[in-house]
Amino acid sequence: MNELRCRVLVIGGGPGGYVTAIRAGQFGLDTILVEGEGFGGTCLHVGCIPSKALIHAAETFHALGDERALAAMGLSSGARAVDFAQTNAWKNGVVARLAGGVGALLKKAGVRTLLGHATLTDGKTALVSADTGELRIHCDHLVLATGSEPAPLPGLPFGGDILSSTEALALTALPRSLAVIGAGYIGLELGTAFAKLGVRVSVVEALDRVLPAFDAELGQPVARHLQGLGVDVATNTRALGYADGELRVANAAGVERRIKADKLLVAVGRTPRTRDFGLEGLDLAMNGPFVRIDERCATSMRNVWAVGDLTGEPMLAHRAMAQGEIVAEILAGKKRAFDKVAIPAIAFTDPEVVSVGLSPEAAKERGEMRVATFPFRGNGRALTLRREDGFVRVVAHADTHVVLGVQAVGAGVSELSAAFTLALEMGARLEDIAATVHAHPTQSEAFPEAASAALGHALHM
Ligand code: FAD
Predict the structure, then answer these.
(1) pTM score
(2) What is d(CA 244, CA 261) in angstroms, rounded to the nearest whole number?
(3) Confidence of residue 1 (pLDDT cuts 50, 70, 90)
(4) Cα(188) to centroid(ligand 1), Å
(5) DSSP strand pairing (270-272 vs 286-287)
(6) Is 440 a catalytic residue?
(7) How many CA atoms does the CB half-sphere of 10 hold within 13 Å?
(8) What is the pLDDT of residue 244?
(9) Domain architecture of the chain: domains with CATH
């Protein structure tokens, strides 16, 4: 068997793993990255990127069919049609282009890459069955970045017409009807996209509202929009079984009904990938189903590190990448800790939802708060986009005016997350935000307006 040695061995080439490897390579550390399926991981191949490509294609198609909106602007469109095989091919092209980019960046950083499944034999050694044959790799530092996979629902195993997000994103023909179990961001992003492409979509959620991970006020505009799209949303409802193209559900009172669904998307969460690669043998301390890490992303075993979805919530690509950078810097001898003030969470639904830092409810525990909202109906840019639904909301400490949370709902507000997160990381006060000149006309103006509202003097409200 061929033997390789390196300073840093990274298992898993998703956002957590590939960023660790690139940064380690940039520091001149001899690094090997092993990836089982495709460099870029879940995010690039079956997550963030293909879902956003699908959402964009669906939105474009939907806008062409919104005759009332078109007529209001003096426009009309001809017959529209979806060639979903081509939609899929375009989406795959975006993924392929970015995957090529990740490969090039790893190469530029001097990282050795291997495509194959890695199995750990101890905290310093892995066996890799690569296409080029079996290899044993010895390292000084092991970085675990094996990510997560879709969680199945008991009684509804993936297979056939029961899809996880991975299979839903690989469809090459549109189903006539789709039922989505789970109204979290993944279920609603995909459900909305398919609805906009003309699929009859139903959503079933066991809790009492959509987007339960966000506070209730943020989910309401999304629920209204889903209704407008004709999506049948059943909250407080449990899925019981699926057979012959019908999903059997029961509401809280136990009343059963059947929902027609050519395909069923189960989107009830993701579970960390901790099995089938020898992790149990390391006997690492765990945090529930996740690998336990400290503020440096160190596991309970010396020189074994872990980043990304494997290590807990929020399971998001940007958290994984930020952790990866920290680990590489520590391995390069720098003193670092993962101590971010805030990690933005976004649902790319329609409208989009952003939450950074504390919600008004969560902030209450820190003392008295000032909470203010500025609605997009008072924002010029939102009106030119014909999207006056939604708002920006700030949560600030009543005494110090330090901003502890910012949330927004609205078309395209995902891009505002950068300003919100920067404000929190920099410890901004309401006065800082209100006094910053924001370009006109942009939706971003709703941010200083909300801060001004919290200070008692919003201009356009
Ligand atoms: P992963 O991306 O899961 O990568 C882990 C990699 O490790 C995989 O490629 C796997 O093949 C490899 N691997 C595992 N075990 C082994 C082994 N033994 N040997 C070799 N290789 C192995 N996040 C966002 O921030 N924004 C979004 O908009 C967003 N949208 C999403 C949409 C969908 C539909 C889904 C499913 C997820 C989405 N996410 C989003 C979540 C995001 O994809 C994850 O948080 C992110 O990919 C986690 O990165 P990671 O590096 O921890 O793991």
Answers:
(1) 0.97
(2) 9
(3) confident
(4) 19
(5) unpaired
(6) yes
(7) 35
(8) 95
(9) 2-148+271-331 (3.50.50.60), 162-268 (3.50.50.60), 345-455 (3.30.390.30)
